[in-house]
Write the structure tokens for this entry.
Amino acid sequence: MGKIAILTSGGDAPGMNAAIRAVVRQGLYLGLEVYGIERGFAGLVRGSAFRRMEMGSVAGIIHRGGTILHTARAPEFLDEAVQRQAALRLKKEGITGLVVIGGDGSFRGAMALEKFGIKTACIPGTIDNDIAGTDSTIGFDTAVNTVLDAMNRLRDTATSHERFFVVEVMGRNNGLLALTAGLAGGAEAILVPEIPYDLESICRRLRQGIERNKTHSLILVAEGAASAFTIGREIEEKMGLETRVTVLGHIQRGGSPTAVDRILASRMGAAAARLLWEGRGGLMVGFKGGEIYPVPLMEAFIEKKSFPSELYELALTLSR
Ligand code: F6P
């Protein structure tokens, strides 16, 4: 394979730039021509120019959040005629391999292009860490640390004022971000979409804390489990306590990637370029037990990541 392209798609995640850098530089090292496509599948369909990437095109980006290639969600890419058109556009330029960095929606786009003869190597990049076949996705570690930093700050003021804080964390269908940050930050309660919550038992836990002279608490809520405002109001009503609500929102998607994410992105990016160079496609680069290895895209897409219930139990046991 001589020419490959790369795009970032869906919600951005810290470390995507480090992955772009690795794909470009490893690709050039292997003798490939590498092209950047701006605005993901939307750009591919709507005619974004293919930008020839050289060593210098990815200089000074390893530490930057976001994606220099920009990203977008592209609902029109569900249409088969649009997918065929996109594959044709790539082929016309002599590009037969594509690296896709994104989440499961982006992988669906990649699988569609496979049907039309484009070889794809996908890199899981999302703060949600909701992709099966990989222990971690690019951006997850940074987002966990961002939430943790916010929790530390909120705990300072919660302690001073002896208040209860409800903090809403991203994660539409998945509570791994809330769970991981909650375990690391000692959240007194963690609400995740995977486990139905029971407000009575949450209040019971909070009351037990108060009986032990605990004067503040942090309750983490994944956005897919409930609205933090609703939970805050219900706790106030049930317990007669003053609560404050903080919605962290898109702050969690930005920021300089941690060393863990930069290294993961560098390894995954290099592996993706190598897969295409070997003429392989229909694969996602996964990370398991410290090793990088290819996973059939279908598997990564269809399988559901299991929720670590033992970590959830541990978080609750330790934060009583
Ligand atoms: O998938 C990543 C994610 O950050 C989710 O956690 C969140 O629900 C969603 O994207 C927000 O998407 P948007 O940026 O389109 O509002």
Notes: The chain has two domains: 3-139+257-302, 141-254. The pocket of 6-O-phosphono-beta-D-fructofuranose is lined by residues 11, 103, 126-128, 170-172, 223, 253 (CB under 6 Å). Residues 140-161 form the longest helix (22 residues).
